[in-house]
Amino acid sequence: MKDADFFMRLVEGSHDTRIFDCKAGMRVRNPIRDDLLVITADPPLPIGPEDATEATAILATRYRGATLFPPRVWPIDVYVISVHAGVELSPHRVLQPTEYVLAMWGVLFPTFEQAALSIEMG
Fold first, then answer.
1. How many CB atoms lie within 10 A of CB 27?
2. Distance CA 116, CA 122 (A)
3. DSSP class of residue 87?
4. How many CA atoms lie within 13 A of 1 on its CB side?
5. CA end-to-end distance (rounded Å), the chain
6. Are 95 and 81 in contact (CB under 8 A)?
7. Which residues have C-beta within 8 Å of that of residue 84, sequence separation ≥ 6?
8. Who contacts 81 (Cβ-Cβ below 8 Å, separation ≥6)?
9. Burial (CB count <10 Å: 0-12, 13-18, 19+), residue 97
10. pTM for this model (two decimals)
């Protein structure tokens, strides 16, 4: 992906060792959090039903104090969230828990090289 904002590798819940180029999109919210980030990933993430891939996902930080707005400390552990088909993503509406599912966990890195090194180190 040209001009990726950051890079992600999937952990815990995936055996996929690819590095995903991520482009940050809009900020969205659910009833509990207002700091969810819509991203576009290349290649598409293996987070859909029955191992389908999706280019769009939502990220949420896993640990208190971590933030995506803007990212300050790297790497960042995130929840990778899959949105059900047909759900409108908008910064002006609240996503309901029935509209998405936690797909897996990931780790964000500011550079491709750091993401690749984290895979080599295990």
1. 13
2. 10
3. P
4. 21
5. 25
6. no
7. 98, 99, 100, 101
8. 36, 57, 58, 59, 60, 100, 101, 102, 103
9. exposed
10. 0.92
- Our measurement of the distance from residue 65's CA atom to the centroid of its chain's CA atoms, rounded to an integer in Å, reads 17
> Which stretches of the chain are DSSP H helices?
112-120
Phi, psi of 44 (to 5 degrees): -55, 145
Longest dimension (CA), the chain: 41
What is the pLDDT at residue 24? 97
Each residue of 26-79: pLDDT tens digit?
Answer: 999 999 999 999 999 999 998 876 667 788 999 999 999 999 999 999 999 999
Rounded CA separation 11/69 (Å): 22
Tell me the residue type at 69: F
Three-state DSSP at 66 gives coil
HSE at residue 50, side-chain half, CA atoms within 13 A, is: 0
E strand or H helix at 45, and its extent? strand 36-45
Q: Which pair of tokens denotes residue 71?
A: 């990212």
